[in-house]
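Chapter summary example.
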Amino acid sequence: MAKYILMEVFKAVFFVILSGVLIYFLVDRALERERNLWRSYFSMFRYSPIYKWLVRKDGQTVYAVNLIAEQYFKSEQNGKNSLKFNEVLPLTDEENIQIFREDNCLIQDVKVRDNKGVLRELDLYTMSLRMDDLELIVITAVDNTDLRKTLKEKTQLNADLRKQNEQLKKYSFINSHNLRRPLSNILGIINLIDSNEKKSGDVIGLLRQSSEQLDIEVRKMNDILNGEKLTIEMSDKIKRDQVKSVLIIDDDKVQHMINKRILLKYNPDLDLYFFDNPVEALEWIKHNSVDQLLLDINMPEMKGWEFLDHLVELGIYVDVKMLSSSIDPRDEEKCKQYDMISGFLTKPLKKEALNDIL
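The structure predicted for these 358 residues follows.
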């Protein structure tokens, strides 16, 4: 009986020892797996191509730093973990509080200088991590320096392009208005000269040919600056009887002389009213009426468009032909905004246009 009891005790002790050994090996294996897992994580952390820091949550000191962050930014000296994270990346008090009090946060546009003094623009991402008894924060910094630089360069390029575009518009304006103005005067004066004069006939013919060629070239230049030339279809918005009175508003007195000669030659009975000041013309038309208005676009006191706006405000409706030295297609396109405009003519006024006007 004693021998049997001794045998049972021996078996119990043996199983206890065996169980302890198995438990030891199982726990050790689990711990080794965990250690291997942490080593894998730390290896990924260490060799990540993005700046990363492991920072103690309580003391805010750097626990570990990966290679690229160590290369570009201040790191622990002599292996001592006494470096405050705020010494690595100087943050504002508000940003610092946000990192160490929130579990996960994003802080954008943090501007810091690296070890070489280069200003970098970083976005910081944080994540809480617990390792053994340590409470850590993983801080990841995404470097947007080159991206922001590229965006700034593109923004500057767009600004430069807009500036150049404005310069081209000014060039187009000079080309279509200022350059053609004296040219239209030359063409208009030529049209007034009696072509039956034999002595000056050849000279006038050459002068006419040269002026017309110059006009063609100016139009070509303007079309290049403005793209394909727009066409505008003008409908006869009001049915008119034969025109008996015409109001001409143009700040160029040479054009007044040309228009007067051509219109009266076509119909000597016309009543013509000339104004070189659109402000005075606006006051006049408040108390008088005419069948037709020939209106210039670019005048110093008031643009033709402003004059038309005043007519609309006053409730004055008159058939309008825009008569301008402009060959800018945008001016022709703008005519569509006004119901009272029934045509767009370029200076100088030609005989071919009189039937449509009168």
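To summarize the output: Residues 2-47 form the longest helix (46 residues).
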